[in-house]
Amino acid sequence: MTSQTDNKPFHGIRTVVTTPVSFDEVCSRLREQMGSATVQEIVALAQTLITQADYIAQVQERFVGPSGFMRFAQIDHGNWLPVFGIHRRSLRWVLGNPLIAMTMIRHDITAGLFAPVEILITEAQDGTGTSVTYVRPSSQMVIESNPPLLAAAVVLDVKLDQLITQATS
Fold first, then answer.
1. Which residues share a beta bridge with 118?
2. Sequence-distant (≥ 6) Cβ neighbours of residue 128 within 8 angstroms
3. Cβ neighbours of residue 21 under 8 Å, at least 6 residues apart?
4. What is the full DSSP assignment across 98-153?
5. Is 91 helix (H, G, I), strand (E, B) or coil?
6. 1 falls in which pLDDT band (50, 70, 90)?
């Protein structure tokens, strides 16, 4: 049996929110709204002998912040960019919630390619503000007609927009 490659083009929508709010303040506001967990913690919890209801309750209690999100990882681009002459603070955060992801993945397993989501928080060139860049999740996940997936992904779009608006306003 030979493998087969199927390329499916799609159109992602990149959103950039620019604010005069400082980089440190935007990061602080985001942290206040998010819980924190590692992917390993989420998986380990699922692998214990608990019910679905217990898993949901424990995820919400232990990991989810007020926004409904948790931060899974941070990549600090600002720590390595100076080697190449770029002196700006820039953080890439991976955030999500397995309970939100499930609302999409149940309709298309490939939605898991874009859940959790990522944001890039970048200090303005002159240091007087911040931009937060992300790709609208529904524009990545829904590339064929799938109304239930689209409905769930749009809910994620709104939650992510609300989180970023709260941090940048």
1. 94
2. 20, 22
3. 29, 129, 130, 167, 168, 169
4. HHHHHHHHTT-GGGGGS-SEEEEEEE-TTSS-EEEEEE-HHHHH--S--HHHHHHH
5. strand
6. confident
**Amino acid (one-letter) located at 40:** Q
Structure tokens at 64: 């989810």
119/164 Cα distance (integer angstroms)? 9
Structure tokens at 36: 């924190």
Catalogue all structural domains in the chain, each as residue range(s) with its CATH number.
Answer: 14-168 (3.30.310.70)
Q: What is the model's pLDDT at position 169?
A: 96
Hunting for tokens 């998986």 — which residue is that? 43
Token pair 């809910």 is at which residue? Answer: 155
Q: Number of helices (H) and strands (E), helices first, in the chain?
A: 6, 6
- Stated as kind and residue range, the H or E segment containing 34 is strand 34-36
What's the pLDDT tens digit per position in 76-133?
Answer: 999 999 999 999 999 999 999 999 999 999 999 999 999 999 999 999 999 999 999 9
CA pair distance 165, 111, nearest whole angstrom: 24
Confidence of residue 10 (pLDDT cuts 50, 70, 90): confident
pTM of the prediction?
0.94
